[in-house]
Amino acid sequence: NWVMGDFVQLEIARIRELVGDRALVLGAVSGGVDSTVAAALMRAAIGDRFKAILIDTGCMRLNECEEVKQTLGKHLEINLTVVDAGELFMSRLAGVSDPEKKRKIIGSTFIDLFEEEAIKIEKAAENTPNTGKVEWFLQGTLYPDVIESLSWRGPSATIKTHHNVGGLPERMMKGVSRSTPRMFNPFFCTNVHGPSSKGCVLLFKDEVRAIGRQLGIHEDLVNRHPFPGPGIAIRILGDVTQERVEIARKADHIFISMIKEAGLYNQISQAFAGLDTNRSVGVFGDQRVWGYIVILRAVQTKDFMSADIFDFDNAFLKNVSRTICNQVDGVSRVVYDLTSKPPGTIELE
Ligand code: XMP
């Protein structure tokens, strides 16, 4: 019978059996706990034949890519390749305000870039004995993301097309390898050891965190709030521009730092600052200004399918608002989102 404690050993054995002793595995890493745990399992199972890639969309949090690279290298001995693609994403997103269009553009740009990386990796491995092609694509996606993305009751039932679900293995790297890489997901897969009689693993966030702890992943990383693949781009209501990303990024950094300083980070499941790109009037000194509206969001949830808002002290929120207005140019107002999920979703788009 399946128990959580066995998962790591069973999964490593399953990876070795499926991947064999020649194939290469490409893995998307984001710095979040899910992709980090998936990467740690793959690294433990096949060593350097696992190639971890982080795509810098230009819409990441402050200093995020460098921090993720260092953490993975130091604690997990994973040599992460960071692909700096901020300008490409920004140019493809120019003038796009529809959230689903943003997700689709970002998703297909991710695939283009993974495709390029796979070609480079296969070229580099050409003269390495006993090394095959990129046959697998690793992705640590959780069940709730899958449920909300699949349109199994028809297209109208799709809540959001999380960019990282679906479409990847089908489209990716056609013609690069001898065969299209297959998707490998340690948290959501069928026909393996698993809790149900059908042999299907469906892991939730708290279970993935428990596995992360078993693997010795640092507590800060294990407890890290999730961050969506499209990043700040889906936290800006409206067109994404460099200026708007920078404003949202600075405001977010202030909010999260103040949450950490107040010792509240681990009581909150996910928090961020987004941007309403309508302008609102403010007064700075004796000047009238016309600035953006920062939206603060913080929720508590177990499964991310429903969520309650976090009850901050008003004094704390006032302090965050004052600090953001004082330190981030272009912001005239800060609001706190009081909507639970449902009806609101966790992200603004
Ligand atoms: P929502 O907004 O759907 O968020 O209530 C639920 C969880 O999913 C994350 N999320 C995404 N993750 N790509 C991702 O990788 C996406 O397009 C996406 N949209 C939402 C969100 O951050 C939350 O943890």
UniProtKB/TrEMBL annotation:
Gene Ontology cellular-component terms listed: cytosol
Tree of life domain: Eukaryota
Record has Repressor as a keyword: no
Record carries keyword Nucleotide-binding: yes
Pathway participation: Purine metabolism; GMP biosynthesis; GMP from XMP (L-Gln route): step 1/1
Functional description taken from the UniProt entry: Catalyzes the conversion of xanthine monophosphate (XMP) to GMP in the presence of glutamine and ATP through an adenyl-XMP intermediate.
UniProt protein name: GMP synthase [glutamine-hydrolyzing]
Species, as recorded: Penicillium olsonii
